[in-house]
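FAQ: What does a multi-protein file look like?

Like this. Sequence, then tokens, then the next protein.
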Amino acid sequence: MKFAYFGYDLFSNVLDALVDDGHELAELFTPIMGGEYNTNRDVCFAAARRGARITLSKARTEDFERLKRAGVELIVAAAYPGKIPEWRDSVRYAVNVHPSLLPAGRGVWPMPWAILRGESRTGVTIHEISERFDAGDIIAQTEVEIGPRDNLTTLSVRLQLEAARLIRPTIRDIETLWASKRPQAGGRYSPMPKDEDRTMRLDMTVAEIDRIYRAFHRFEPYIYLDGVRHVVKGLDCWQERHDLAAGTCVRRTPRESTWAVADGFLCLSELVKAEEF
């Protein structure tokens, strides 16, 4: 089946899985994005290697006329940072790959919230692209257990792998699954985390600190030390009884510092001042 892909590198293995399964990539839509993590090098390389057109801007209605003329039957979006125009007059199927068990976890970045809320499971949902974000009928879904030591990095990778596994049989049997897709009911939206959601404090418990660090891991968890906000790149914490005031620095070396927290200790390393990050 000839398809167009909408997304960047976060779920690039979904694109690879489709091509490896024999589907023909006609065009890649991947708007240029800033930041350390929102890259599109891998998907651009995959498209260029297969001679597919690359559109480095958000999709417009007129782009869909081109897809129709090219014989594109399928749109697949995965972590696409924008709204996809009305597609029903141009292609047969349009699906989005979402990293949560919809209808729970709607929103652009549900993975940190799954850890912050202490949820025991999440998953991957493939749903019809609709007018409202993440609200289209569910076509396929698979569950992923969240382990007690999962962090944003491990959970993201596990969901990426599961997404690639799920997309293969879904597209192979898309006609049947499309006919039996089911509407979403209820659900919960996960907003983009604010700075306060990703900030650890020295008066928190070890469990609270650990949960925030795992929820954001290498994606800029913050802490204030001596009134200065830092990005935390390395952290260890443990529970231990003490009679120190929370926020007391008990040890400091050029490489790390150890602080008393509400019910234990926090050892910080690889700190970067936020304004320098």
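And here is the next protein:
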Amino acid sequence: MTARPARPTLGLAQLPTPLEPMDRLEAALAPDGRGPQLLVKRDDCTGLALGGNKARKLEHLCREALARGCDVLVTGGGPQSNHVRMTGAAANRLGLECHVVLAASDRDPTTESGNVLLDALLGVHIHAIDGRDYYDIEAGIEELAARLARQGRRPYAIPVGGASVTGVAAYADAADELRAQLGDARVDWVVVADGSGGTHAGLLAGLGDDVRVLGVDVGTRPDLREVVPRLAAACAEQTGRPAPPAAIELDVDHFGAGYGAITDSALEAMSLAARTEGLVLDPVYTGKAMAGLISAVRSRRIGPDDTAVFWHTGGAPALFATRYATCFTPTTERNT
């Protein structure tokens, strides 16, 4: 593939992020040594406000906002949204304000914790809305942006998760970064958490037919199967890439009761990743994605001769949210 020219950067993301082997997790899943090769792409190490995949998207989105002369970023998400946290941090780095909508029914203002505590630290202006559905939040973003515009502000509205074509293009670029790190090595699968669908769509646009991208639905958006290929196609067209596959690989078996719900499979995956690789995952996004990877290995959907990359999208602050405080308890030995 011909190298693409580097895009101008705002310095929000520390790139490239590491690509590391997961030899001990491989051995845990296939003790007989007849399992796939596993790697992890560490987008939890992007640096911005404790890191995560949204830093890549915000490089593109904020560049567009600045080019349009905007003075306030407007977005929204669930209560443990990594995107909201990182948008607030990006706004501060660039001298902009950040206003967000969060579902009031999911928040207890007397016990803010996890990402919401960080939102407060960053000075994000939080606007509570009654709805909690994905498209309730999207509508809230548009309404908030319109209200700020009536007040004389110049808002830049960012959809949930940064899942616009502009944001998606960041992960087409990330696919190029992965190819460069792999060199001549082959990869068969990339596994990633699927929230708003933007990261999955960008990887699909960037990797095309060469690699199967498995998105693990975490319960954020109800129409991923339609949205992801549409965003991927629009991104490929905008960035001059070949049309990506029209069908997508989607795991809908691991989100449990919905967005943010605790699942046994995610807790098992988090423990296994931590105790084999020292890899910290979260119960909202990456824990469920890792549960999808483990299931795909055990069922042989990812075959023993395959190589799979787990794309770590970050999210560790959610571990410190009050609702997850009792998920793991320490084993304490008393010296006598």
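Q: Is there any per-entry metadata?
A: Some entries carry free-text notes. For the entry above: Strands lie at 19-21, 37-42, 72-77, 97-103, 125-129, 155-157, 189-194, 212-217, 249-251, 307-312.
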